[in-house]
Specification:
It contains 3 helices and 5 strands; from the N terminus they run αβββαββα. It is α+β, with helices and mostly antiparallel strands.
Length: 134
Amino acid sequence: MHPTLAADCHVLGTWRELRLLLHRDAHVRWFILVPETDAIEWHELPAHLRDQLLTASSMLGAMLKRDEGCDKVNIAAIGNMVPQFHFHVIGRWKTDPYWPGVVWGRSVPGRVYGDADVHKLAALARSCLPVLGG
């Protein structure tokens, strides 16, 4: 895993061929899906990994709206700063400090997850990605 992703995220587990991460910024619900591949662009991904990313991001997005009460779910594959392919699924609230702008490259200090919060969000992810492993 790219060092920036490792430093910025909690590892929640794997689902199929995707590693599921939780960004440490607790102002938003920011999941990151990292496929097991050397590809760096969406169009370079094997079809089965694109399918897994679409399925997982859809299930996580639905969970964020249903269980976390997010106002909006943003998804993106940017990768300008971190060349390893990764896919963002971000639950946003109109009250978050980044609203209505983007979260990329911005940081408002002060809200990080405690261990109990990480375990709660890992359990929520397992509820919508039922074969999530460690």
